[in-house]
């Protein structure tokens, strides 16, 4: 699938399921939202950019701590759903911009904070995304990134991505931690903190959130049921009477700082 086709699939997928993503417990809850603020230590005069805002959960969390949050998403209905949710929550310092994560419509060094949470596996060109993050960040600015990641083993990674793609055609690829780290380093984004964790999902709710048909759900389940022992162990698959009950996915959370801030200058003096 070409890059533009992937982006069209993303718009179709998230456009019709916008409200589900606002309400999704996976996206709306989680200690990572509070931890993001703790790690970034935002200041009230900072400007923040939330890329692929989805249901607006990160923007809503950041808003009380900064002067302005710009929330972007490729999908207009998603932005509208996020805006409505934030308005209900009485959050009024968020601006909404329809934008492609790989070609942001902002000037260089416009934001002290950039965030992207559980979205980058939909981006067909991760390198372009990371270049854009670095470009719009001020020197010394912070980038908080969270996404599902694949294992370093290439064959196991290929299987994980096959499962994800079968479940959701708008899925591009889960990169490994090593791949993301190399992209960040190449673009002057220096790792400060990181955390990996296993996220466990109820299989039926997980697969139905994106499925178009019962046939698609069966195809995903069969992939898991017919997986090798190594694949089943990695995904932590649990079954009952020949049906998949739960499985798990690796998630990586990382805080980076853009090279060139005052601290860097002081260290080099």
Automatic annotation (TrEMBL):
Q: Where is the Methyltransferase type domain?
A: 49-145
Species name for this entry?
Answer: Brevibacillus brevis (strain 47 / JCM 6285 / NBRC 100599)
Q: Which Gene3D superfamilies match?
A: Vaccinia Virus protein VP39
| Entries under InterPro entries matching the protein | Methyltransf_11 (IPR013216), SAM-dependent_MTases_sf (IPR029063)
**This protein is called what?**
Methyltransferase type 11 domain-containing protein
Quote the Pfam families the UniProt record gives.
Methyltransf_11 (PF08241)
Q: Which GO terms describe its molecular function?
A: S-adenosylmethionine-dependent methyltransferase activity
């Amino acid at each position: 699938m070409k890059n533009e086709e992937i982006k069209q699939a993303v718009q179709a997928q998230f456009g019709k399921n916008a409200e589900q993503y606002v309400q999704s417990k996976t996206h709306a809850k989680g200690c990572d939202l509070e931890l993001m603020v703790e790690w970034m230590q935002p200041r009230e005069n900072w400007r923040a950019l939330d890329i692929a805002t989805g249901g607006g959960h990160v923007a809503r969390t950041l808003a009380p701590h900064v002067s302005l949050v710009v929330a972007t998403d490729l999908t207009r209905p998603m932005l509208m759903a996020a805006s409505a949710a934030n308005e209900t929550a009485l959050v009024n310092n968020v601006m909404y911009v329809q934008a492609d994560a790989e070609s942001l419509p902002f000037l260089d060094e416009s934001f002290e904070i950039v965030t992207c949470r559980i979205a980058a596996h939909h981006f067909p060109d991760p390198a372009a995304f990371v270049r854009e993050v670095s470009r719009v960040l001020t020197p010394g600015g912070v980038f908080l990134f969270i996404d599902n990641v694949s294992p370093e083993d290439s064959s196991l990674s290929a299987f994980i991505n096959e499962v994800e793609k079968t479940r959701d055609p708008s899925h591009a690829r889960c990169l490994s931690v090593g791949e993301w780290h190399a992209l960040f380093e190449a673009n002057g984004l220096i790792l400060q903190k990181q955390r990996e964790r296993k996220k466990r999902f109820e299989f039926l709710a997980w697969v139905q959130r994106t499925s178009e048909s019962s046939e698609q759900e069966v195809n995903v389940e069969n992939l898991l049921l017919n997986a090798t022992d190594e694949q089943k162990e990695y995904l932590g698959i649990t079954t009952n009477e020949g049906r998949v009950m739960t499985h798990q996915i690796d998630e990586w959370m990382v805080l980076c700082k853009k090279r060139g801030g005052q601290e860097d200058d002081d260290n080099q003096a």
